[in-house]
Amino acid sequence: MTAVLESLSSLCLLLGGVLCITGGVGLLRMPDFFSRVHASGVTDTLAAPLLLIGLLLQMEWSLDSVKVILILMLVLATNPTATHAMAKATLHGGQQPLVFDDEESTGGEDTSKP
Amino acid sequence: MLTAAIVAILVTMFLALIRTFLGPTEYDRMLAANSFGTKTVLLIALGGYALSWNSFLDVALLYALLNFVGTIAVMRFFEYRNAPEEGNGPESAA
């Protein structure tokens, strides 16, 4: 039982760490603010619960586990909200998403970047 | 495996910090700062357990709350900064 919990916790921590680094690289390398929001926000929302569940499986059940569950629910609720607020504020602030026109290229000759 | 996760969080925090200093617009900086704050919560939770601190989870919980409120506050400031004369402020536009 302990070995099963240990391996499950290791799997969660490893997946969470990989997702974390993926989000960081996406945040650094994406060309546009909105794609950066996508790269960072989506991976954060999955990576934080995975890391916290991995931590939860390692510690024995006590009041601290309740606190970890509380942090998990808080992150799950607030992270998409903050991401949405940032994207909305950026769109209202006059920034436009980087768009590659595909409709012209389907009828025309080549893919043209604006 | 806990150490590997902590190292991954630290690497991600470093990447977010680079984007914070590099970001072309203020929105990019705020996004990277928010990501940095979320990673700080995770780092406190995992690192406090690894180093067996006393009440690290309270600190992490408080930091998560403060991070969210701070991000929302700064984003509302950015959103309504450019049009201060329309209506009576944020209440009429919300």
Structural class per helix/strand content of chain A? mainly alpha
Q: In sequence order, what are the helices and strands of chain A, one letter per element?
A: HHHH
Strand portion of chain B, in percent? under 5%
Q: Considering DSSP H and I runs of 4 or more, what fraction of the residues of chain B is helical?
A: over 70%
For the sheet with most strands of chain A, the description reads: none
Overall mean pLDDT of chain A:
85
Task: Describe the oligomeric state of these chains in a short phrase.
Answer: heterodimer
Q: What Rg of chain A is obtained from the alpha carbons, in whole angstroms?
A: 20 Å
Domain tally of chain A: 1
- Catalogue the unreliable spans of chain B: none
Largest sheet of chain B: none
Q: Alpha-carbon distance between the termini of chain B?
A: 46 Å
Per DSSP E runs of 2 or more residues, the count of β-strands of chain A stands at 0
Q: What layout of secondary structure does this protein have?
A:
The complex is a heterodimer of chains A (114) and B (94).
Chain A: H1 2-29, H2 33-58, H3 63-92, H4 103-107
Helix pairs in contact in A: 1-2, 2-3
Chain B: H1 2-22, H2 26-50, H3 56-81, H4 90-93
Helix pairs in contact in B: 1-2, 2-3
